[in-house]
Structures are given as structure tokens and as C-alpha cells.
Amino acid sequence: MRILLADDDVQILRALKITLAVYGYEVAVAQDGEAAVRRAVDSHPDLLVLDLGMPGLSGMEVIEAVRGWSTMPILVISGRSDSAEKVRALDLGADDYVTKPFSAEELLARIRALKRRTGPAQESPAVSFGNVRVDLAARRVSRIGDGGVVRLTPTEWHLLAALLRQPGRLVTQAQLLTEIWGPKTTDAGYLRLYMAQLRRKLEPDPAHPVHFLTEHGMGYRFQH
């Protein structure tokens, strides 16, 4: 199992790397958020162990960037015991949260639990369809051929990423509303509005979509 450790504390990195290596894990390290995202894209680890308080991109931003293209397990290790921080990290896509200080035994148990629940990450951070290429890690959408950049709003991007992560599968209205606007949002009009905007920007013929399909009364489906 390949683990990416991201923490700006060199001593913690060294100690955790030694401990995990003893138990047979293959370990890579990153000391800031940008390096963590780059290494995740380049090496496709099976698990990301991530500190929230890092320079460059924060841990929260790393979770968002990785969740744009990958379902790999993310285990947050943080000195922040505030429940609001924990809830936010989990809502953004972290799978588990351990508060520092913690024992090596607890960390290993959490890793084993995540390993049992999930398989290795196989996703690619880039998806192409029609004449569009989406780099999910870099959050960049471009036209194939001329390389022109397609500008998306943050909400359009979240909707696009949610659909691209599950190609060919129905993603229900309730799932999308909860993921993008929170559990208290029930108005599907938001989805119709932003889906129409995505189609105008990404479909060859927005009036007759072939990539972002509506399943009436249920949700939406992305097709290559």
C-alpha cells in the first residue's frame, strides 16, 4: 500500500515515515499543500495522510483539489480539535480525522480500517470528452485543438467534478444538492440553472446534450 504523508513538521514526517515503513507501507512525503497535490497526481497513492495547517495550499484546499478527481481515502491528522474544523474537513471529502497527539497504534488502526473499506485509487486527474479536456487536479478546462481555456464559476466546477467522478452513473438530484449546496437545500432549480450553464460552455450543441444527460425526475448522468 502506497501512502502519501503531507505535513510541514519535518520531525513528524520523519517519525511517521519510519513507523509506516516498518509495517511494510511504501511512503512518500510532501511538506506543503502544492507539493501534496503534485505528488498525488504523479504517484497515485492508495491513501493520503494530511495535516490541515500547511503553507501554500491549506489542508482544506488540498482535500478539495484531490476530491476533484480522486476517491482515494484521505486521513486528516491535525492539532486542531475544533469540531467545526473536523466537520468541514469531512464535508469536503476527508474519510477520517485524528487529532494530534495520537499514538502510532491508533494511526495504524485507522489506516487498516480505511484499507478495508476502500480499494486503491485508479482515477486519472484528466478527463476528455468531445473537444474538451478537463484537468481535475489543476482545475482547468480547455478546448482540444486550440488550447483555449473555458472559464467556470466555482459552483459550475463543483457540479462538473461531481459528475465526472462517476462516469456513466446516475447522480441523483439529492446527491448533487447536498454535495454542492449542503443538506438543507432541496430546490432543484439550482441544478437546472447551473446544468444549463455547463452545457452552454461544454456541449457541442447545448440544446441536444450528449455528455451531460438529464434523467427526468431523478438526476443527471455524464457520458464520455
Brief digest:
The chain is of the alpha/beta class and 224 residues long. It is built from 8 helices and 12 strands. The strands form 3 sheets. It has a 5-stranded parallel sheet with strand order 2-1-3-4-5, sandwiched between helices. A 4-stranded antiparallel sheet has the order 6-7-8-9, with no helix packed on it.
Protein architecture, described:
The protein has helices at 10-22, 33-43, 59-67, 83-92, 104-117, 154-164, 173-181, 189-202; strands at residues 2-6, 26-30, 47-51, 74-78, 96-99, 126-129, 132-135, 140-143, 149-150, 170-172, 212-215, 219-222. It is α/β, with parallel strands linked by helices. The protein has 2 domains: 2-117, Rossmann fold, CATH 3.40.50.2300; 126-222, Arc Repressor Mutant, subunit A (Orthogonal Bundle). A 5-stranded parallel sheet has the order 2-1-3-4-5, with helices on both faces. Strands 6-7-8-9 form a 4-stranded antiparallel sheet, with no helix packed on it. Strands 10-12-11 form a 3-stranded antiparallel sheet. Strand 6 and strand 7 form a beta hairpin. Helix 2 runs parallel beside helix 3 and helix 6 crosses helix 8 (189-202). The two termini are 31 Å apart.
